[in-house]
Amino acid sequence: MCCLGLLAALPSPAASAAVPGISGRGTDESDLSVCERALSLGFGDLERYQSALPSYLRLFSAADAQSRWHTAAVECPQRFAEGTVRSALAFHAANTLADRTGIGGVVTASSASLDDDLTLHVDTSTAAGLSLAEDRAGFAFEILAARHGADATMYKLSDQRKSNAQILATVVAHESDPRQKVYAVDSLIANPDETVDPTNGLKAATSAVVEMNCALEELDAVSAGTGKQSDSASSSGSSSDSTADDASSSRTDAEAHDLAVISTLVSAHIATALDLGYPALETALLK
């Protein structure tokens, strides 16, 4: 409790200054929309957990940031990808700080597995894109498992991804199964241990690149489905017009549910990729 009290007392100038468009709405946080409040608090937490504060304080800020950026992903129409990515990065930072400090019970992990009874209201093309990304990753992990002497962890990842693909292929009515089932294997066979991510040139464990590419492919599917290319991840220097749009728009309950499910799934993929050795670089993930 003392730690939380100290954390709450810390000043956070970035919490309001980092979000252009909020400044004109007054200093009373009750005047902010859910989106604006999530952004304001999220940027403040981001500043603190990346600072030189004691590790235990940074841990609590990172844990808070994970939740607040998830809220931003769901509630801010222009910030889905950014909120999802920042939530995952905050989770990774919190996990690292929890291990360093030995403080448990603070970090909440997202699940990379979908429920069998999942209900979604997304359009067919979005569901198809999500299913295809999961199936592609499941196939890749199966190949990597075989290349690594029947690696049990990779087989488990393969089964999870393929199960997700099956659920997403049936949760929305499709004219045909969006899954291809079999994909190109040349790169996986040639580079089963380490490879270069073709999306940004970063070198990482092949399993990490497979998982991160799954996450990024799913973010693209959501962006394409909404028809908002500006929904791709952006830096904290976004325009005031974008923030104004975030403040004036609102989600229906069905949209909020769907985006919460998808954001949680994608964040879990990103976190897994980071655990597998993908570089935790904001500049690589926030386009």
Automatic annotation (TrEMBL):
It comes from the Bacteria. The keyword Lipoprotein applies. Residues 223-251 are annotated as: Disordered. Residues 230-251 have a biased composition (Low complexity). Keywords: Lipoprotein, Signal. Residues 1-17 form the signal peptide. This is Lipoprotein. It comes from Bifidobacterium vansinderenii.
